[in-house]
Structures are given as C-alpha cells and as structure tokens.
Amino acid sequence: HADAALYYAKDAGRNNYQFYTTALSTKTPELLTLEKSLRFALEREEFMVYYQPRVNIITGQISGMEALLRWQHPEMGLVAPSVFIPLAEESGLIVPIGEWVLRTACKQNKAWQDAGFTPLTVAVNLSLKQFRQPNLVEILNNILKETGLEPKFLELEITESIAIEDLEFTRNVLDALQEMGVYLSIDDFGTGHSSLSRLQLLPLHHLKIDKSFIQELTRDDKVAHIIKAIVVLGQNLGLRLTAEGVEKAEELEFLKSINCEDVQGYLFYRPVAADKATEILIKEKNKHTDAQ
Ligand code: C2E
Ligand code: MG
Ligand code: MG
Ligand code: MG
Q1: 159: enclosing H helix or E strand
Q2: Which of 51, 54, 94, 277 has a CB 3.0–4.6 Å from the CB of 64, allowing a cystine?
Q3: What mean pLDDT comes out for the span 173-194?
Q4: Whose alpha carbon is nearest atom 20 of ligand 1?
Q5: 184/204 Cα distance (integer angstroms)
Q6: Which residue intervals define the domain EAL in the entry (predicted)?
Q7: Cβ of 245 less than 6 Å from ligand 1
Q8: Residue (of 134, 49, 141, 167) closest to 98 by Cα position
C-alpha cells in the first residue's frame, strides 16, 4: 500500500526517506491534505511530545531525555516527523510549533524535578527557521521564566547542517545561548560533511553521532574506525559523546570499548509519551534505591 509510508511505523525511517525524496519533486494529494491540516494542528491540540531517554553506558543510568514531536492526525493517524517537519519548515509553521515543543518539554522537565526525580536535561531539536529567529534568546528566556526551569536543564540540538551553513552566524547565536546557560549540542553529526575542526570554534557541549553510522557498524568494518575517530577527537575537544540509534548488543559493546559516554536507541528505550516516560523514571529511581 503506497500510502503506508505516510504513517508512522515502528521502523519507518527508510520508507519515510523514500517517500520524501519523491514528495519533494511532486507533492502527492495526501501530502497537500496534510499540509493544509498542519495549519490547524496546533490549535486543535493534535501534537504530542514524546520523550526518549539517553543512557550513560558506564553507570547504566538515564542521563537525559530528548523531546520528539508527534502529530496525531484525526484521520491519518500518527504522522512521522520526517514527513511533517519539512512541511512545517517550508510554511514557517515550525516556528510556533517549535515554541510549543520547547514550552511543553521545559514544563515537563520542571514537573519531573518537582516530583523528586534526579534532575535531567531535556533536549529539544531546533529547526533552521527557529535558529534563525532574531528573538530566539528572548523567546527562550520567556519560556524558562514561565516554566521555572533552570537553563542548565535545557539542551538545544541543532543539526550539523544547520550549524555549518553560516559558521559566523552560528557562532554568534551559540555564544548568546551559551551565555544564557543552556546546554548546546550538534545532532546527526557525520551527515553534514563538515569536520570537527570547523566546529571547534563553536561553544558546544555535546556531539551526537548520527544513527546511520551505528546502522552501518556491523555491515562495514571501516565504519568502526570512523566512529572511534569521532569519539576520540570529540572527547579531546571536551565534548560529551552520544551514539544515536543503538539497537543491538554488539553495537553497545563496541561503543563501550571505545569509551563513548552515552547511547540513545531502541536497545534501551523507544520514544514514549510523557506518562510512560514518568513510569520509566519511577522504575529507574526504584532500581537505584533497591541497589542501596
Ligand atoms: P533526531 O533529532 O536525530 O532524533 C532521533 C530520531 O531517531 C528519532 O526519530 C528517534 O525516534 C529515532 N531513534 C531513536 N533511537 C532509534 C533506534 O534505535 N533506531 C532507529 N531506527 N531510530 C531511532 P523521530 O522521532 O522520528 O524524529 C526524526 C527527526 O525529526 C529528529 O531526528 C529531528 O530531526 C526531527 N524532529 C523531531 N521532533 C522535532 C521537533 O520538535 N522539532 C524539530 N525541529 N525537529 C524535530
Ligand atoms: Mg535530535
Ligand atoms: Mg539525530
Ligand atoms: Mg535528525
């Protein structure tokens, strides 16, 4: 069924990609319908924020949560971000939608802290248009003030491609964000054809190795060397390293052997709704009380 690629499937990554490469040249009627309903999705409260824990390999503890946007379309079901984020970016709707994600994630993180869980950072993805907003710092300051979350518990992820598009501009924005005290990371590292030597001028805390590398790891020996080189170089630059898309025990073993600090992937947790994420945090807390 051709439309199946529109909907969120458990492992739809590759399908969605194929869907999108065709969709960019000619928009299917389904895509045009989605584009229209996207305009009302925010006010109709069709968005949800899911959370995926990031795990410290050494301690086995949750070291952060990434906020991942979901769209529950009334007729089409759950639509994947790889389908609707590009539409939202194109129309500019990503700006109000992204602001809603930021507010929701900060509020949730503060609620977890108030409930007595070990304080964690919540990571929010920023799109190009959001990153380019002249009043980004002001918006973020307002959200932090409104929700009562300390800036150090908010992490902002920008992709490597966004970061390198205009390095001078990126540096100015990141300097301002760094001054605010938020945590800064580069997402999907390795896909933007840049190099760490170009990124080293940026005030970064965290580098996330793109999942395509981890997926190739067991298929191609050379990839192991590349991942290792990224981890070593990144750590020498003082960055915290996370490997994305870890699904297999052997991938985890390899990442352990090269001292990669954190992993994020289905092997540990899938992205889940806030109530499920709370259950995960309760289990995590009990695990550590039991161990004492
Ligand atoms: P990302 O920021 O790189 O997020 C990681 C993606 O990898 C998520 O896909 C997550 O569900 C998926 N993932 C995590 N572990 C595994 C694994 O073990 N195997 C596989 N195959 N996938 C794994 P998701 O949620 O579909 O999001 C896709 C992309 O959409 C994100 O990639 C991010 O670029 C974008 N996105 C999601 N939420 C937002 C948002 O609120 N704002 C913006 N601007 N972009 C967002
Ligand atoms: Mg991300
Ligand atoms: Mg990524
Ligand atoms: Mg991505």
Answers
A1: strand 154-159
A2: 54
A3: 94
A4: 245
A5: 5
A6: 31-285
A7: yes
A8: 49
